Amino acid sequence: MTTTSPYIVGTVGEIPPGTHKIVVVEGRSVGIYNIGGKFHALRNICPHQGAELCKGLVTPYVSSNGPGDYHFEREGEIVRCPWHQWEFDIASGCMITDAVMRTKTYDVTVEKFGVSVEQDHIVLHM
After folding, report:
1. What per-residue confidence (pLDDT) applies to 83?
2. Gap between the Cα atoms of 76 and 35, Å rounded
3. pTM over 0.90
4. Residue 90: which of 25, 27, 28, 44 has the closest Cα?
5. Which of 16, 42, 61, 102 is least buried, going by the fewest C-beta atoms within 10 A?
């Protein structure tokens, strides 16, 4: 059985929907993302060549049925590596074009300690 340690990494009010925050916990850099009110944690390392993945652009998923036809889906759910533009699903850590290539993800919970939602603590489980 694997046990995890909880770390308070901020409050809900610090990371509004559509934004993220980079934290360092136990020497590991992790991006904490708020996608539509749900929190996700992603290791801040691109598996390709080690770039700080969470410093890349957060984009939608772009799909196409052919030349000149493109659609934006899943707004704010994809992070693009700042070095070579590899794209990763924030929730799963998987690369968009090859799901075998991935970066580590962590569980995140919101613990209700405050009197308002903005003061609730975001807890990273490592």
Report:
1. 96
2. 7
3. no
4. 44
5. 16
